Amino acid sequence: MYKNKGLEVLRLGIDSHQERIVYLNADCHVVQSEGFTSHSRVCVDTGIESIIASVNITHNGLVTSDQAAFSEAAWRALGLKGGERVMIKHAKPVNSMSHVRSKLYGGKLDYPACLEIVSDIQSGQYSDIQLSSFVSACTADRLSNEETLALTRSMIDVGERISWDQPLVMDKHCVGGLPGNRTTPIVVAIVAACGLIMPKTSSRAITSPAGTADTMEVLTNVELTQEKMQQVVAQEGACLAWGGSVSLSPADDIIIRIERALNLDSEGQLVASVLSKKVAAGSTHVLIDIPVGPTAKVRSFEQARKLEDKLVKTGKALGLEVLVHRSDGSQPVGRGIGPALEARDILSVLKNHSSAPVDLRDRAVYLAGLMLEMAGVVDSGAGVLKAQEVLDSGEAYQKFIAICETQGGLKEIPKSSHQVDHLASCSGIVTHFNNRCLAQLARLAGAPNSKVAGVELLVRLGDRVEKGQPLFRIHANAKGEMEYALDFLAQHSDCCQVSGETV
Amino acid sequence: MYKNKGLEVLRLGIDSHQERIVYLNADCHVVQSEGFTSHSRVCVDTGIESIIASVNITHNGLVTSDQAAFSEAAWRALGLKGGERVMIKHAKPVNSMSHVRSKLYGGKLDYPACLEIVSDIQSGQYSDIQLSSFVSACTADRLSNEETLALTRSMIDVGERISWDQPLVMDKHCVGGLPGNRTTPIVVAIVAACGLIMPKTSSRAITSPAGTADTMEVLTNVELTQEKMQQVVAQEGACLAWGGSVSLSPADDIIIRIERALNLDSEGQLVASVLSKKVAAGSTHVLIDIPVGPTAKVRSFEQARKLEDKLVKTGKALGLEVLVHRSDGSQPVGRGIGPALEARDILSVLKNHSSAPVDLRDRAVYLAGLMLEMAGVVDSGAGVLKAQEVLDSGEAYQKFIAICETQGGLKEIPKSSHQVDHLASCSGIVTHFNNRCLAQLARLAGAPNSKVAGVELLVRLGDRVEKGQPLFRIHANAKGEMEYALDFLAQHSDCCQVSGETV
């Protein structure tokens, strides 16, 4: 291969998100000898580390012709400190893209193809444009059960895998789409208080205003190393960690970023994302909650049934016991939508506050009960009573606090600086919540990036309200975001509908 | 809407290709009040122009907290000169992406949906990630005839449209996939020499080493304004211009950039791309050449037939007469693959050099003959003879030179600085050319960005060669690119196969 003399590294301090960019002067000898243009994909080599990056050409003194400047993601990936020199050459074409093209043309993805794709994604070889094409190729119901299994296996195989040396390792997951449905921390606390092992790892939000990891981060540290995670579980029987920080199914977080930008969350990739994390985390028994409702992510029982089939079959092929529970997805759960607001609901349930949201409590108790039965802790049918008992006695709360303390300490829940109440425009009965609109409202207000942002529901379906009564409260930490949310609300009056009475 | 005080503009001189990026300091008040992070999509407003851009956050003194710095594409789109102040707020979600998602989920794209998508693409509202999803959603045969027509119409309707006040306006197009098949300039010269009107606009290369616009740019200026184009056609009856410079179907060039990055070129988008440019250019009669061969873009007659059907039907619905010719796509045409090498072949045919490639000449004459018959200049069956006559007499050459002179002058064809010959490893007969490998070889050598780069074929199918005899010559203008091409060649010995004789 052609060798150039190397360029001096420069840190520009530009955060281009996960994209790895190298900025080169138009007059640089490497640019000229290699014929680089903006968007060329190149291989940057320090002699110790090498990465694939995209070129941006600069036309003034920002970068000299003897320098190679890097975006923050590229700088970190190369492990640079400053003072190094790097060699830059053309990157080889990403061969696994031929599998993506073949899939777009109606071909099938087998395990070797998936492994090549997922390995290349994990090692940063895919540009955002290529990632988006892969996500689009696999979206909707385009992946068969065999392809879903192949993708799941490959996502497991490129990451780390934890072993617990336990016959029963419990896990639960909610496919999402129902704002505020944050049962997981409560279920973990109950199940662990009953002596079961539940090393829970969660994702951050994809298209929702909060994922369990976003919400738990309000209460404690969730970025645990694998060692720290094992220490927490050894001590408390459970943890509540962010999956990405322990390198379980690492390609998943890269794919999730693109799904978020596209507001797409496909069936096959959903199954692969969920089950790859479970298997890599060493789980043996997984309970999956699928909320079904007209404005939830899963809208019909037919759709839920297809998803259940894919989850159970893929799980079985991977040696995982999967139980699916389909729940009511007609309205948000609890009062809060957004990390901090949801964290407040969770604590109030665990503390048995009289004001705790009953629906969140009931759902968590029911799911925990199913898990206790699944694990054989109680006889079939006796799970709910046992779960109720552990919650009422305060054992679940104590277990939750112990987990948070072991993970790095319980944090104070922060409060938002801006609040605006949305009022009923007439008297009547609350007849409809649009989950999607409420979720988008919370996102526009800043959730999940702003922890305190979101929507706080002040009424429930079927409540009688008076004209001018607050229906929900928008929380934001930036004036611009609040204005943006209000702007959206003005155009989407069906977030919460009140059917007027004839007086 | 929330108003901020505005930020001073700064030109960083970073060329991020077509992507519009605004670089903001992490401490900037707008970043904090609006809650921007890297990859936020924002609206930047100068008071006169406004654009959608992606945010990159900077963490040092590169950009001060009172400044907004811009990539070159963003700077140009805003028409900045320096000294202006801009307002920045969250961009509204791109509503037309819901149509892209719906298409991915199996829905159909109608005209209003296509128009929304194409308008948003043209006005720069789509990020690269969103563009890639749209291209992937429409790839392969995913667009029905109705959808293809809707997409074509919308691509016409967002751009300019030329009217010629002529009953017959001729055009031709090759769907590509056959390296070196550069008949268009010769056909235009012959047809125009016969007195027909042929205002030819061409694209740059998508996935090939050269498009007609890339090749013509070696010989003359192809970036004509619409006024200049009309002046050239009024004077010479024809022109050979780059389509993008006259704003005909402007969304096409944005889409093409993404197709190139993905190495994807889909059927529906191909039809929309070709026919939208033809209708916008005011053509009435279009001849379309589809080379068919095992390693051409179209590999089977079945595939060619489907494409023909889509082209003819869509053309008819748009009031365009479309004639499709299926040609032999088994080996490259002419000797050169790459802009300058192909330009050399074209001139040698037009000048009736004894060494001119016969296959290129024959194809051009045949296609020109079909056009003369289609236009009624000669009777059916007499086209080829007439075309031959005009070429032999030098009238076609004179017409070609006149067109180049009127467009801005005939240029000298540049020569490459690096050449390497690839030799036959045994004696025998040349039995196979792999068009795809040869095209990729030419691209790796630098074509089309480097005009002189490419591959020069020294033998044809069926030729008898001796061991050590040169089969083809690689041309490059950068040592790195030559090494890269040779590296690829070492792994792809089937670019040109010689079947050895038993001596």
TrEMBL record, chains A, B:
Top-level division of the source organism's lineage: Bacteria
Pfam family, one: Glycos_trans_3N
Keywords: Glycosyltransferase, Transferase
EC number: 2.4.2.4
GO molecular function, one term: 1,4-alpha-oligoglucan phosphorylase activity
This protein's record includes keyword Methyltransferase: no
The keyword Transport is assigned to this record: no
A biological-process GO annotation: pyrimidine nucleobase metabolic process
GO CC annotation terms, alphabetical: cytosol
Domain Pyrimidine nucleoside phosphorylase C-terminal: 429-493
Catalytic activity: thymidine + phosphate = 2-deoxy-alpha-D-ribose 1-phosphate + thymine
Family: Belongs to the thymidine/pyrimidine-nucleoside phosphorylase family. Type 2 subfamily.
HAMAP family linked: Thymid_phosp_2
Protein name: Putative thymidine phosphorylase
Organism for this UniProt entry: Litoribrevibacter albus
